[in-house]
Amino acid sequence: MGQKMNILVTGGAGFIGFHVAKALLERGDKVTIIDNFNDYYDVKLKEARIKEIGKNNNLDVIKADISDYNKMDAVFRKHQFNKICHLAAQAGVRYSLENPLEYEKSNILGTMVMLEMARKHNIKDFIFASSSSVYGNNKKIPFSEDDNVDNPVSLYAATKKSNELLAYTYHHLYKINCTGLRFFTVYGEFGRPDMAYFKFTKAILEDKPIDVYNNGKMKRDFTYISDIVQAVLAAIDNPFPYEIINLGNNKPIELSYFIECIENALGKKAKKNMLPMQPGDVKITHADIKKAEKLLNYKPKVKIEEGIKRFVKWYKENE
Q1: pTM above 0.85, yes or no
Q2: What is the pLDDT of residues 275-285, one digit of tens each?
Q3: Contact 272, 207 (CB under 8 A)
Q4: CA pair distance 50, 174, nearest whole angstrom
Q5: 100-140 pLDDT tens trace
Q6: Rounded-to-10 torsion of CA 12, 15, 46, 41
Q7: Among the options 95, 135, 156, 315, which is catalytic?
Q8: What is the C-alpha to C-alpha distance for residues 312 and 299, in angstroms, rounded to an integer?
Q9: CATH number of the domain at 6-187+224-250+286-300, out of 3.40.50.150, 1.20.1060.10, 3.50.30.10, 3.40.50.720?
Q10: Residue 251: which residues within 8 A CB-CB, separation 6 or more?
Q11: Is residue 224 annotated as a catalytic residue, yes or no?
């Protein structure tokens, strides 16, 4: 790497944002985090993540909302960012059924404001988070970036698809380099408490039953956080005019086996509450990662058994 960069990471108190910011700081880049520290899940976890990286002179943390245009304009005027890594979003498929307007504000307006900032402040490289949820109930397996994604089955997915469209427009009109990364079920230490592996681990340790949807027959392309971070950094370092890239593990795991991995790591069996499919959920996610391999030299290394072991170790040390 040549000169050190000044990189904005939106959502840097979030799960993926925190790990990306940490990796950028470790290699010597200057990082500014913007996060609104909302209470979608326990804010203490967001604060713990920031504390983990907080003692760094190259880090600036700003508590603000990315959808606040004037506030963002002031931040951008003050900092001379080289690149934007836009990972802030209101996450969660199920929550989007209850709080639709939060998703519009955070995911659509927030992304628009960031793209406007890139245009206005002449920032050429824009890397942003999309999601495997855009594929909906895609019939073709594995999911490829060329597949049609015009039929989202959740509002969350619809906002992510619109991010890709907005980014394309800004690329087309203003020649901003935009790379959208479709993340497939990312898991690992400091993860999100609303994610299944986190909830399952907590419940099993507390002798509480876990909710298993679709009788454990769903498959997810679980991707370990360190593999994702390596790819995000590669996307930051190698800007493309406009690309959408899958970041998955290319090995879907059935939910029942996933639970088994957690049981093995904990040395304890789960009490299971078998339930039908939930609205907005999909039966399988499976990433075709050929494009990521080619463009980002992406090679996921961490197998599910190892990843779950690492998470459980972290969880036990931090609860």
Answers
A1: yes
A2: 998 877 788 89
A3: no
A4: 34
A5: 898 999 999 999 999 999 999 999 999 999 999 999 988 89
A6: 130
A7: 156
A8: 24
A9: 3.40.50.720
A10: 221, 304
A11: no
